[in-house]
Amino acid sequence: xxxxxxxxxxxxxxxxxxxETYRRLVEFKKRKNSPMxxxxxxxxxxxxxxxxxxxxxxxx
Length: 60
Known about the structure:
- This protein has 1 helix and 2 strands; from the N terminus they run H-E-E.
- By secondary structure, it is α+β, with helices and mostly antiparallel strands.
- The protein has one domain (3-51).
- The radius of gyration is 15 Å and the shape is elongated.
């Protein structure tokens, strides 16, 4: 396996990990009924966890 293939595989694994972490975070916030703190248009805002999408996709 060449360097490019290794880097692509590593990148894909990192992205899968980020997606799984996001899913678990949203799930946790819903269980605890705790707002998600995010940045929107440069401002910090609290968002109801039930308004957040349960999954997200990163560019691959």
